[in-house]
# Entry
Amino acid sequence: MTEPSLVARITDFANRADPYPLYAELRRTPVLHEEDDDPYVISSYWDIESLLHDPRISSDATNLTAAGADELNQAENTGLPPSFIRLDPPEHDRLRRIANSAFGPPHKPRRIDGMRGELHGIVAGLIDGLASGTEIDLVDQFAYPFPVTVICRLLGVPREDEPRFRSWVDPVVASLDPETRQGADPDFVRKAQEARTQLGMYLAGLVEERIKDPRDDMLSDLAAGKGPDGAMTMMEVLSTAVLLLIAGHETTVNLITNGMLTLLRHPEYLQRLREEPELAVNIVEELLRYEPPVQLLPQRTCITDIEVRGVPIPKGSRIWLMLAAGNRDPERFKDPERFDPDRDDLQHLGFGSGIHACFGAPLARLEAQIALAELARRLENPRLVADPPPYRPNAVLRGPRHLPVAVDGVLP
Amino acid sequence: MAADYVDWLRREGRIVIVGASLAGLRAAETLRAEGFTGSLTLIGDEPYEPYDRPPLSKAVLLGKASPRHTELPRRRHLDAEWRLGVPAAGLDLTGKRVLLADGEEVEYDRLLIATGVRARPWPVAEEAELDGVFVLRTRDDSIALTERLRAGAKRVVVIGAGFAGSEVASACREMGLEVTVAERAGAPLVGALGGVIGAVAADLHLENGVDLRTHVTVTALEGDPMGRVRSVHLSDESVVEADVVVVSLGSLRNTEWLSGSGLGAGPRGIASDAGCRAFDFRGIVTDDVFVAGDVARSPHALFGYQFLSLEHWGNAVAQAETAAHNMICSASDRRPHMWMPAFWSSQFGVNIKSVGVPPMGDELMIIQGSTAERRFVGVYGYKGRIVAGVTFDNARWLEYCQRQIEQGAPFPVEYPTVDRRPEGRKAVPADFPDPSLPTHGPTVTLSGYSPADRRLVFTPGHH
# Structure
């Protein structure tokens, strides 16, 4: 029996807890193409960085589907048009600009910073709630509810509807996972499509309300569409809202959970964070390098023949950019396998780069900084109960499903 | 022996930096960061600690930042002696002394010259002295201009539509002031980006209500009996009423204080080797004098070893760091200054960025987006290679342009790109003005060939 391919081992759930040795193996062949139908897997920092800025690389789902490469993209093939994460310029640029005019500078410079107090309040409430037990599940009791509450407030989605949209979000998120996708039966693909449509319809109801009665939230602003680029169509508003709702919490859950897990494995930094809360900034940046919540970008292709490190990649090939492998590339970072928030060269591919660089990065940073600093300050003597903890199946949005932590108590 | 000297220098040598702006500060910080523990003196002609200049023509004019508070962030504690408000007046290379305007002398073991440039003044002195006539380079310039604009100015005339002039025009329009821009060339920014991109910039001016006059020069500034500027006379015989005139005719390099010192310094700056060591007037490299920032000109490997003078913020930082490193290391550890030229501007709501050396290019290709939409990526070609890139509201693609320049990638660009439009399928002449004609000044000056190049022509100075 031949050994499974490296790509198969990376997506294999058995290796979810620690894929980093596989990434190291991957970097030995920086442009890996194992079988005819396999993707071209790019794992060196500089190559990834350069492809993220390369105008011959496309994120447009139709370019991948045209190449006949990926039935998984069908998950976006629903009643809703693709969101900007799956589009190229100029459409991508127009939609992202309009979305940004409801989110950040120059139109809304205070939207995120203005939520600082609110974020502290949510975190304080959730940590207060941990006080009842001596063992907590950091995911279910904190790292999941926190960003969900935040993204709901930001968009203007009622928090109490979470159980409803949860059932639609899960299949869509699962469909982003290459392993799930490989064995995808038509039924699974259909379910993911249906879920995305359902989620869109649910949000359509909210958008209708906001058109009649605008509030201080992103759905109202997206629906109103004031700005030099005009408004999105209703369908574009819905795709964008679906994207923001999902991306707005699925990734942050992992950032916070990976963060706490890493700090519990490096208690000296947990202790320092307790004493110097401002260290949270460096810790979060180093986490985005060391344990990035998005491990790889599996949805790119090239619109012409290209060459990377002398390896030809034909037009229409699937290209995987292995962000988490690039983040530990010894060609780029000194001592890359060490978690070191004090490095003077704190950079990473954790948010991607180029035109698709993480839209929500300013929010994710703030959420993770506040969450980790407060957890460090208030949890008394936190210890890992299981190492490694149980993981979610997803290889792309990688993180623990549960993080059981024993504590002696919770400080006020 | 040489190693002993470097050890001694690092430990207790005396380093003097003339020029206390961006390059001077970053060099000082790098010296300390790399372990220099000797004495460090910074000499600056302005009375202020190092401050940042780019905001002075942007946020400061708009009232979003105070002209008095654009201090440069400090990377570390310096433990330096500051001689501020006193210009350097001379250099004694043999005696290793800097002479100050107040008569004092400062001795050095190694010297860094980072005296930068100053605004080119209006050439007719009595007209330049009229009340209401400004240049914009320093904090004091900025305070004076900002106060005047806020005090009820009605019509502003900007002379020269380079980057600084265009930014001033943009800010004045945003403040609701009437603005006339007079430009000798056919469009704004042509010296830096050529006529094709200049035409896009001209549209930006016109759409934003600027009264743009091209192919004209200013023949006279007229004052009233009180000595206040009243009108501006143009070469097409028209007259524009104005109560504020901003002279934006590029810059002059601050090298006069070096005249007669024996250093290779002149109107084009101070020539150095790739490692920032200054040449003397015979073209022989000095051991103890280094240069960095706007005043320097040095050969660049990526651009045929032409000597480049770069008035770019990023160049000042990078060159200062390289110069500082080379000042206190052994010969084998020296690094060449290989910074990729890059600059940005913000005007009429558009973010303009560039990498490489656009004026070296003779052809241009819009590889993404469209000039009509003011959102595009253009690359400049010279002899079959990409030598520069420019973006309007598309800065995230600039890194790709940079890599292409570094790799000497072929031009024209034949392959497809995302967002390629029909207009971008063929290369067009970039349309730079004849470099022998005076302009408001490109931000990159190709000012000669490498000493190894046989086309070198020696023109003695007028010392």
